Amino acid sequence: MQLSIIVTNYKTPELLKLCLESIKKTVINIDYKVFVMDAAGDEDTEFAAKENFKDFNYVPFEKNVGFRALVNEGLALVKGKYILILNSDIILTEDIIGKMIKYFESDSSIGLLAPQLLNLDGTIQESCFRFFGPMTVLARRSFFGKTAFGEKILDRFLMKDFDHQKTREVDWVMASAIMVKESAVEKVGLMDKRFFMYFEDVDWCRRFWQNGLKVVYFPEVKLFHYHLRVSKKHGGILDLFTNKYIWIHISSAIKYYWKYALRNLKFKVQMSNQFQNPND
Which stretches make up the Glycosyltransferase 2-like domain (predicted)? Predict the structure, then answer.
């Protein structure tokens, strides 16, 4: 099997149907299997998936297990050399697979490839980023992002200093639509189980880089992404009191910073001990 496709879904049956229809129409001339990972799915969604897409594998979960768990459970099922991971709000409009595999094969050090994501009006969506700094979350979630210094932090984070029509290596990409090699996943491991939702893609990309595998933004392939940002409804401080997803986002951010801050601290202690004068 050359290609496996994992589609993650949570209570978006209409978008899921559009996504699966687009896969069926555009993925051609390749042997592939689709695994629909459906969190807290209802009978209507299950019936629609099984009835309209009988060749696809439907895997339901009784509750919302989170994006990371859906991906990891999917990765445990797939057998393809290449694995395309899609959210159910992604729409394919052309045969993208051949282009992506060809680019993978041009450089064996590429571990993860991300297409350009477009809003429904055709504008480019922010989907590739630099790694978070200590002030990035604050700038994104508060009035601080409106200050001159906060805007500078956000511009750097959002990579506004480069042409998004050009292919390039990036720190991390939004995992709404990514392709990975099975061999790369075997080397890097699954998504970190400490993340229920949010930051699992940041962490995963970081671990790809740590294992010598490139993360590449590839705008030669374009997909449409509905992208409902459930962690940002009203914007600003009001979300702290009205939106549970912002607290999930903040919790994941804390876990991420703690994971890598602690690792860096241990590294600094080891280096300090290594170069310490034994006569001191």
Answer: 4-108
